[in-house]
Amino acid sequence: MAMRSATSDGIYEGLGVGTVELPVQREPGRTSGPDAHGILRLTNVLHIPDAICNVIGFPFVRDNHVSVGFGGSRQSQGFIADSQGRKLAFFEKDRPLCIVKLSDPPVGPVVGPRTIQSHGGYMIHCLWPDSERRRFEEYRESLARQQQQRYSEAEKQWIKEHYGNEFRFLLQHGLSIYKEEDRDEGRDIVKGLMENDG
To answer: 153-163: per-residue pLDDT in tens?
Structure first.
């Protein structure tokens, strides 16, 4: 959802808010098998292109009833676990910050060079002011009233069966889930493909 916003210090500009699905490795050393990888689904993510890194904040922990553990392993700095204690993701070892281990290709994405250096010293503080959060909520509510449902239930089921989720579907068609026009084009592609399956 494209919407300009500002952080508390005014240094960084947010360009939109959306949902991000991160393909992650669940535990160190496990790269194959049905439970080796998972998806961390982050909602209401503020997109700040100029930030040094992405940040998973307390709202993710609170809203998803997960816990974060630190230490206790030679293979990682800690982990994220669900309410039953099952590991959802882990933090890479020997890093200056707690960095979630993304799944390597072909399961995960090809990522660019790291901006966080192994030998650097970092302190990151992120705050999205309440006034900006309220403005976002008002904007989101107005969009919800304006827009019809993007996919029918049948189309959602078709995407799930053939691609897993909308993100993967769009990616395979060279489209971005972060651009509304790409998502609209994706909806048209789904309709056409379903007709061909027909």
So the answer is: 899 999 999 99
